[in-house]
């Protein structure tokens, strides 16, 4: 990130800052390679240092621990999806559930390891800091906005889960949506991730059907309420 000078104008990064950014990017690229081969739980900074021809202590000047590196990678992943959701909502003049679903699928398939890092099996012993959960909450905020404008039957009897959500809505981070909208957003999110997770992990391979059509059918069912 460029620093600001005394005039308030952003200054270009120094050669030292550019070099540091390049090394950090290479470390993350090699970390993604490790994750693709053996999973996030096997991530090793010492192995990355060896691949790069660095000593362990030299690499730790860039990332102080394995968890710090994982946090940076998770931040990049969530930030990318949040930005894609915001861009979709801006382009459509408001959050649109169908458009967001397709954004999610394209984003997941473009980089399956990135998707699995944040929506796959949790990394043992890792706990995300608040800054990460805040970015994840941005994504859910856009989805809640989209679900709030979907048509629904106001005369339908309230589900038991709606009553539960009325008192268990901390995850919505103060969003104004009522319990029925929270319920619909959670169903929307979990069902689409169910299909996507199986597709990304390769569990549909050899079954002979088109996963994109399954995803579209699930989306149509969700939009129909």
UniProtKB/TrEMBL annotation:
Signal peptide annotation: none
DNA-binding region: 44-63
UniProt cross-references to InterPro entries, sorted A to Z: Homeodomain-like_sf (IPR009057), HTH-type_TetR-like_transc_reg (IPR050109), HTH_TetR (IPR001647), MT1864/Rv1816-like_C (IPR025996), Tet_transcr_reg_TetR-rel_C_sf (IPR036271)
Claim: DNA-binding is one of the keywords in the record: yes
Listed transmembrane segments: none
Keywords: DNA-binding, Transcription, Transcription regulation
Keyword hit for Protease: no
Domain HTH tetR-type as annotated: residue spans: 21-81
One GO MF term attached to the UniProt entry: DNA-binding transcription factor activity
Pfam family, one: TetR_N
Family matches, as PANTHER family: HTH-TYPE TRANSCRIPTIONAL REGULATOR RUTR, HTH-TYPE TRANSCRIPTIONAL REGULATOR RV1816
Protein name, as recorded: Transcriptional regulator, TetR family
Organism encoding this protein: Actinacidiphila rubida
Lineage: Bacteria, Bacillati, Actinomycetota, Actinomycetes, Kitasatosporales
